[in-house]
Amino acid sequence: MDVNYVGEHLLPGQIGQFFIVLSFGAALLSCIAYFFATKNPEETSWKKIARIGFWINAVSVVAIGATLFYIIYNHLFEYNYAWAHSSKTLPTYYIISSFWEGQEGSFWLWMFWQTVLGAILLFKAKSWETSVMTFVMLCQAFLASMIVGVEIFGLRIGSSPFILLRDAMDIPILKQANYLSLITDGNGLNPLLQNYWMVIHPPTLFLGFASMIVPFAYATGALWTKRYKEWISAALPWALFAVMILGAGIIMGSFWAYEALNFGGFWAWDPVENASIIPWFTLIAAVHVMIAYKNSGHSYFTATFLAMISFVLVIYASYLTRSGVLGETSVHSFTDLGMSGQLILFNVAFLVIMVVFLVVKKKEMPITEKDEEIYSREFWMFIGALVLTVACAQIIASTSIPVFNKIFGTKVAPPLEPIQHYNKWQSGFAVIVMIMTGFTQFLKYKRSDSRKFLASTVASLAVAIILTAIISYFTKTYTNLIYILITFASIFCILANIRVLGDAVKGKWKLAGSSVAHIGFGLLLIGAMVAAATNEVISVNNTGYIAVSGFDKVEKPGENLFLTEGEPVQMGEYKITYIGDSIAAPNTYYKIKYERIDEETGKVKEEFVLQPFAQNNAKMGGLIGTPATKHYITHDVYTLITAAAAESQAQHSKTANEEKTGFEDYEEPATYQVNIGDTLRYRNGYYVIEGLNKEAQLEKIPKGPNDVMVGLKIKVVAADNKQYEVQPIYLIKDGGIYDFNKDVTDQGLKFRFTGIKPDKDKLEIMVYQKPLPEKKWVVFKAIKFPYINFFWCGTIIMTIGFIMSIVRRNKEEKRKLAK
Amino acid sequence: MKKSSIILIAIIAVAIAMILVIYTDSSTYSTFTEAKEKKTELYVVGQLNKDKVLHYDPKTDANKFSFFMYDNEGTECEVVFRGAKPQDIERSEQIVLTGKMDGNVFRASKILMKCPSKYNDKSVVTEINATAFNN
Q1: Which residues share a beta bridge with A181?
Q2: Where do runs of H (alpha helix) occur along A361-446?
Q3: Does B64 reach chain A within 8 Å, measured CB to CB?
Q4: Where does the signal peptide begin and end (chain B) (predicted)?
């Protein structure tokens, strides 16, 4: 059955799909041609074909991106990708984020960066071009196959971003010719991704991932073409670049988590986070061993192995996050697209390349038989790299539990407390690595004077101990041995590197880059440790907790605080008030005013308003809170809405719609025996029984001669001094007793005059109260993060250090080539 | 043998030992019956009992949410979570709890829930942590 669908724009999709297939073909052609160009360097035609393939691929990749952007930008919801990841209300800059919300877009991003890197290699790699580009283009072909989205022999290969909505989903509505007129808007972007960090974090991270192919390709190319020794210095600037960008990308992600996610922290050891840090660790280890080899000739195999495994782990990371294998263990992995087989193939392909080259060429590798000196820098760089690798193995082992379950059919659950689990291991490794990073600065390559070494190490250790005592005291981390050790190791590392930096100022600028990066990392570690160890929830709820005594005694006071609009609550040193909210669709901003008041004078010392917001998003399952943070130099105050009033109101109205008796909106009534002149309280004020009205009249019911009809005059005075007069009526008619109630709607009150008791000289009334009209309220959580600025600061310093090192290594390589 | 080779072997041994230790740290997916026996912190997988009332009244205690849940063997148990009620738990099709048994009540420190996405058949996993349960 052919249906003529109305209003579809099929051309962009066809163009896009064409370029995907073209990019795949061109990448494959280029890879093969580079392969033969490496085998037959004399025949220049292979290289020419390979380069043509590369450029066709490059143009295709750009065209795919442009077409996809056109589709999302113009809200062509006939395409699944645009529909699933964007909506009309999305601001333009978030259209960029929606671009890589899906797997397909993020694969494209990876391809795009690989194209950019490939172009640089084409111009700069010179004699390395053919062998290095063989592997780059092989990877490019694999990536293109991930988005190709065609079926071959009943096997679906890849998932195309240009698939139509009606093909992607098997829903009858979509088979109607006019289905597009029914789709008014897209699914929208996940609110957690609607954050400026999400515009910049994925491209940075993927540039980091993409650039890790270069050291891999150099190492493999070197083994293949037997240029064993040369690759290390050629690949070193690239490896440094990859470490720098990936590190920056990871930390941007942690900034995003801190700013936008509601788990209350900057690092949670989530499998997705782990997946990105694993290759970062191994490549850092690789960089150090590469430098050690370059200066001493030791550890060639380790350097090559680490550079290669890093990229294999990048692919493993994308398998973890994209295949759906993490399932319930991760909150933010991609949705499963059923490509796990293809991802495994990608992984296995590069793993096999690595193993084959390492095994086959092992004998030819320039491995020295000389034993390393203990008092030598290369020896400790090697050991440090190994410790880093073991640290990495711990993360891999713990993160891969779902993978092992899948392979062995077991049902092991990941550790219950992942953060404690990882911290326990990684803090130990961090101490060892930082101390090594410290004292290795005092060692020279090949052989150093042990007396000099010991003297400078001891001097630095002494200063480090003093500084650690001071810092532990001020940051209040002295209660825990491991915190003290981390502080000490980091301080020692920083001090040792400052000494090297001191030499740099005297003229040895060469070593400045690494020491700046080490100092940055030390600061980062201290900041992370202090912020993670001493962050405290300041919205501790002590009230309402004591009230349920006995029952809750095993538990600590809760961390969520209940705030009613306009009613200030004292929270630690702050007086906080929920002063209202404003709606900027789709978000609701809750204004929380913080005031610090001087206890003696009562003056407001400091006042600020935080506006955490929340989005009620059905796609993500309800209210998604986004924190707001007040930044100080020494600490941050982080505020997050965990529940808000709108929700509970909706639930209230649900129950009220059944049978109407006129009383169901009220609470259980209270009966009082009163006298004239009595004053009684009610929830929002008081009322006075003013007197009886014997002249009371009722419409429709005429008073008979024997009837008694008495009104009771009641004056209601609300808390805001508003007054209301009501008169419920008591009636005895023809022997029967009736009463006619009266409402005070504004106050949610209903009065019945139910009896006159002459024997007791009392009047009986029944008072019904409505539950108070619900005031707006929020439940929120506030956390204080001390010294988190060290963490961000350290990151920036570390990145600067990397840039300095890249510049230096690049210069060295150029000078070498010029000779 | 070279020093580096000895150290390499030592470190590999450490790594293997470490991985074994990691597995002692790992947990299992369990049931309420097992939780009652063991009294230790563990995971329980199951479904929300949608017929019973979910209790969350932030005005009296913003940090207490209780509900009833069936585990995968069909055993029902009351669950108390110290924290705000996870939004949309009513729609969840599967819940993974972290916590331990206390008498006849399961005290959850973390709720991980899988909700059917409104728009397609893919499920969305959300994680909610309780507050200050173990500290």
Answers
A1: none
A2: 377-399, 401-408, 418-439
A3: yes
A4: none
Asked whether residue B4 is assigned to any structural domain, the reply reads: no
Q: Would you give the DSSP letter of residue A511? A: G
Taking the alpha carbons of A344, A349, A351, A355 in that order, is the dihedral positive or negative? Answer: positive
Q: Does the beta carbon of A545 lie under 8 angstroms from any beta carbon of chain B?
A: yes
Q: Is the pLDDT of residue A13 over 50?
A: yes
Interface of A with B in 425-444 (CB under 8 A): 425
Residue with tokens 């300041």: A538
* Contact with chain B for residue A398, Cβ under 8 A: yes
The answer to whether A563 and A594 are in contact (CB under 8 A) is: no
Residue A570, Cα to own-chain centre: how many angstroms? 31
Closest CA to A58 of A10, A12, A112: A112
Domain housing B48 = 28-129
Three-class secondary structure assignment of A292-305? HHHHHCCCHHHHHH
Interval A36-82: pLDDT, tens? 999 999 989 999 999 999 999 999 999 999 999 999 999 998 898 99
Instruction: Determine contact, residues B113/B129, Cβ cutoff 8 Å.
Output: no
Of A264, A383, A544, the CB nearest to B7: A383
A648 touches chain B (CB under 8 A): yes
DSSP string, A518-531: HHHHHHHHHHHHHH
pTM over 0.90: no
Q: For the stretch A58-93, what's the b/e string if a residue is b when 16 or more beta carbons lie within 10 angstroms of its beta carbon?
A: bebbebbbebbeebbeebbbbbbbbbbbbbeebeee
B115 belongs to a structural domain = yes
User: CA angle, A23 as apex, A18 and A24 as ends, to 5°?
Assistant: 100
**Distance between CA A301 and CA A59 in Å, rounded?**
38
Residue B6 lies in a domain: no
**Which candidate from B7, B82, B120 shows the least CB-CB separation from A386?**
B7
Residue A621 is nearest to which of B26, B82, B126, comparing CB atoms? B126
Q: What secondary structure letter does DSSP report for A669?
A: -
Closest residue to B63, CB basis, from A372, A416, A558: A558
Give the span between the Cα atoms of B16 and A207, in whole angstroms.
33
| A331–B127 C-beta distance less than 8 A | yes
Kindly report which listed range (A27-41, A637-651, B26-40) carries the lowest average pLDDT score: A637-651
The 10s digit of each residue's pLDDT in A106-136 is 999 999 999 999 999 999 998 999 999 999 9
B47–A contact, CB cutoff 8 A: no
Quote the longest CA-to-CA distance of chain A.
128
pLDDT of residue A663: 67
Whether chain A has a CB inside 8 Å of the CB on B40: the answer is: no
- The percentage of residues in chain A with a pLDDT greater than 90, rounded to a whole number, is 39
Closest to A333 in 3D by CA, of B124, B86, B110:
B124
Interface A-B, measured as beta-carbon pairs within 8 A, has a size of: 170
B122 within a domain of the structure (yes/no): yes
- Count of structural domains, chain B: 1
Interchain contact B5–A (C-beta under 8 A): no
Cβ <8 Å between A779 and B2: no
Instruction: Name which of A413, A560, A618 is nearest B29 (Cβ-Cβ).
Output: A413
Q: Is B39 on the interface with A (CB under 8 A)?
A: no
Give Cα B114 distance to the centre of its chain.
Answer: 12
Highest mean pLDDT range out of A80-89, A118-127, B105-114?
A118-127
CB proximity A553 to B under 8 Å: no
For β-strands A679-682 and A685-693, DSSP reports them as antiparallel
Distance from C-alpha of A430 to C-alpha of A782, rounded to nearest angstrom: 29
CB contact under 8 A, A413 and B2: no
CATH code, domain carrying B100: 2.40.50.140
Tens-place pLDDT, residues A518-576: 999 999 999 999 988 888 888 876 544 333 333 333 334 567 788 888 888 888 788 88
